[in-house]
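Entry 12.
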Amino acid sequence: MYTPWGESQEVTMISRGASIVSTESHGGIALTDSYARKNCLPDKVLRIGIHAGKHYWFEEDCDYAVPLYFCHDLRTDYYYRMKEEGAFDMSMSQLEQRLRHVIERWHPELLEAN
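Predicted 3D structure (tokens):
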């Protein structure tokens, strides 16, 4: 899969239409257009992503938290997938706090209306 950061080296499916992608030097979350529409992600979330091809791409350092925070189903699927992979050991509440912290740091304007 080609990403805005180069050719992917690893793709981990979160759910149908949502994946974590890694390249040699970077990565993030990829959402298909249909996944984004089906899950009614608001425009303010989609504007944070890079729209290229048939995907919205959310960079792994600053932007990944945005769709996870604003889409409950995606966050839940991500949480259980990462637990299954052994990628972290935290509660759902801790994950939500972490996501909110990232958004407060990089995209505080998204929380003003919440």
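Annotation: The CA atoms of residues 17 and 32 lie 5 Å apart. Strands lie at 2-3, 6-7, 10-15, 18-22, 27-32, 50-52, 55-59.
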